[in-house]
Give the backbone structure.
Amino acid sequence: MKVFKFGGASVKDAAGVINLVNVLKTIGYKDTLVVVSAMGKSTNALEDIIKQYFQDKSKTPSSILPLKEYHLQIAKDLFPDQKNEIIDVIHELFEELLSFLKSNKSPDYSFVYDQVVSFGELLSTKIIHHFLRHQGLESFWLDARNCIKTDDYYRSANLNWDVTQSNIQLQGGNESLVVTQGFIGSNSNNFTTTLGREGSDYSAAIFGYALNAESVTIWKDVPGVLNGDPREFQNTQLLNQISYREAIELAFYGASVIHPKTLQPLQRKEIPLYVKSFENPLAAGTSVSKGKTLDPHIPCYIVKKDQVLIQLSSIDFSFIVEENISYIFGLLHEYQMPVELIQNSAISFSVCVNNKYKRLEELVLVLRSRFNVEVTEAVDLFTIRHFDSKASQFINNKGKQILLEQRTSETAQFIIKT
Ligand code: ADP
Ligand code: ASP
Ligand code: MG
């Protein structure tokens, strides 16, 4: 089997879906499992629906209608001449969504989130499945929730590998062309769970692992993995080959082209991951596999924007050692602050965090009871792997204040004031 993954950008409109079929026809689709995300920005739209629902549960969220129209329009563009049953399927899925919202009694935001947000992937895969059939490709629609089994940690569920693997082997490998959803799974009570935003790459890796796939290909709007996000950096270059270890490092530091969890399962079975352009399917793209660390061996640039630098020092000049550090980390965990970088000296401790859940104020209040606290918001964290003199120039040329700098033999990181 081969596993393909198509993200939201690749299927944002009818032209994108037609292109997906062309990619399959060009590359071949025998013994292929295709994992698809929600179309375009549908997941964001569903997040809006959930917010509106929690603001006033007595009203039907107004953002449902435009999302329905968006999917109906894609279906109408794909089947301009005849009425296809997909139109009824879309109506039914939206009925199901409304009926869930009407009957739901759970006040648990994360539970409701997963039940609602998963409709994006159900809609996209149903539309694509019907269109493939219409184009003469014998597609089989697989409900990923019957395969991907997780715990109850809604919005960022953890996989039960054993059950998932046997489910996928039973259900995923029998048909020649399978279409399924990324991002979604279910728990032991069969409630829908999700693997975290951008989790479809991870789903593709899970299917690839369980099926002992010969390769996993993620089709993107870029030629492959570049040595920097082209939206942020100029003159980026394509990386032809990256080792699993190097790719894990890049993804961990924030190279958002690959979801960080994607690589571990593939590395365990040495399944190659290809990152290719859906606009140019015959081009080689990037291969993440056993072999050279990085080819070409050039610096790789990653930026995480809008981070927060917290600088702590002891009030009484006492040392910041294990006991304080463990207290600080306990708080960072409690207030759900992903830690991006740390640095310490005898009486000071600096930490760069992502204020993902907007709990900075609460955290700072607690910290002030034991430390002098200085907070700098809206900083950029630059990470440069395989740092060289040219990369150093890049940082200096920014002409911005460097608040903190840290280097190891392979990685240099800079916190820069914006
Ligand atoms: P998907 O449609 O699969 O969700 P994403 O939007 O998550 O795709 O990933 C593709 C985007 O990742 C590109 O448009 C690009 O802006 C961004 N990106 C970030 N870092 C890199 C990198 N190192 N190389 C290529 N693209 C990158
Ligand atoms: N649709 C989900 C999201 O937008 C999953 C994914 O695209 O990977 O986060
Ligand atoms: Mg994505």
In short: Residues 7, 198 surround magnesium ion (ligand 3) (CB under 6 Å). The mean pLDDT is 95.
